[in-house]
Amino acid sequence: MLRGQPITEGAFMQFVTEEIASQPACWRQAATLARTASGVLPREGERVAVIGCGTSWFMAQSYAVLREAAGHGETDAFPASEFPAGRRYDRVVALTRSGTTTEVLARLSDLRGRTPTVAVTADPKTPVMDLADEVVVLEFADERSVVQTRFATSALTLLRAHLGADVDAAVADAEQALAEPLPDGATERRQFTFLGTGWTVGLANEAALKMREASLSWTESYPAMEYRHGPMSITDASSVVWFLGTPPPDLPEEVRRLGAMVVTKPERDPLAELIRAQRLAVEIGVSKGLNPDQPRNLTRSVILSDATTHDKGASTS
Fold first, then answer.
1. Do 26 and 125 fall within a single domain?
2. What are the SIS domain coordinates in residue numbering (predicted)?
């Protein structure tokens, strides 16, 4: 079957759906691994940069905010292609599911011998194993679907656990997010906006990306307070506005007055709420006859012949 060809629901739903459902179990393993990997993950007080591409970059954004908020030290997140070579860091963390992404490998090669690096990956048989000084392997969270779900959330869970987060509570919320119905009527809407604050801005970016990849939907994401500064002009009765985490006061009601469906679960761990957005993306994609396991124009990893070349590729590296 050619990549991007429509397929029937019966032929699909074998990889990404199983991978979405496996996230609570993967998070538990990630939390356990965090204890044994603590010696290679960033130390408290270090100045750290986190790099990745696509989904991994969005997880880096969330981790950077969480680490600073926990008082562990200044932390920046960059797309691997935009890493500022002139800045000094005590450690650079690279997130890469495939372990083969050109931009990530190029940055690790540049940093070799100058700045300590640690990679978080899913595949122990890839070039990242040789280029990073230290490696944490989440082989249990690897995926067959191009659309990345459980590796991204497991990598962030690993890093959250290392910061002292209550992973058990997040796992319980994830199980609930898998069991409960999707927001009634959401699959019939045509425009989706995901909003976050602090560390959940990265999650909002990721939720929007999943919707674009898996269902080719019109989807946007913003810091919640920026939504009023222009983006809300697209919102109408065909929209879903989904808050990840606690929304700013009065904003959900303001959005409702525009006719949009508002989705908010402030009592739920935001990473667990991301699971519902993943599920929605898959359900809409399948309803359109798409194959969310292999989205149009995407591959599992971006491997370029020249690191300066722009090419088609996955968000899930």
1. yes
2. 37-175
Any idea what the CATH number is for the domain that residue 131 is in? 3.40.50.10490
Are 109 and 80 contained in the same domain?
Answer: yes
Burial 19-42 (b: 16+ CB within 10 A, else e): bbbbbbbbbbbbbebbeebeebbb
Q: 45 with 180, same domain? A: no
Domain count of the chain?
Answer: 2
For the chain, the farthest-separated pair of C-alpha atoms sits apart, in whole angstroms, at: 56
pTM of the model: 0.91
Q: Which two tokens stand for residue 201?
A: 């801005």
pLDDT tens-digit series, residues 253-293: 999 999 999 999 999 999 999 999 999 999 999 999 998 88
Is residue 7 a part of any domain in this protein?
Answer: no
Question: For residues 143 and 84, what is the distance between their CA atoms, to the nearest angstrom?
Answer: 30
Name the percent of the chain lying above pLDDT 70: 89
Tokens of 114: 């100058």
Q: Provide the β-strand partners of residue 93.
A: 50, 118
CB 102 within 8 A of CB 196: no
Dump pLDDT digits (tens) for 87-139.
999 999 999 999 999 999 999 999 999 999 999 999 999 999 999 999 999 99
Tally Cβ neighbours within 10 Å of residue 190. 11
Regarding whether 174 and 225 lie in a shared domain, the answer is yes
Mean residue pLDDT of the chain comes to: 91
Report yes or no on 297 lying in a domain: no
Domain contains 267: yes
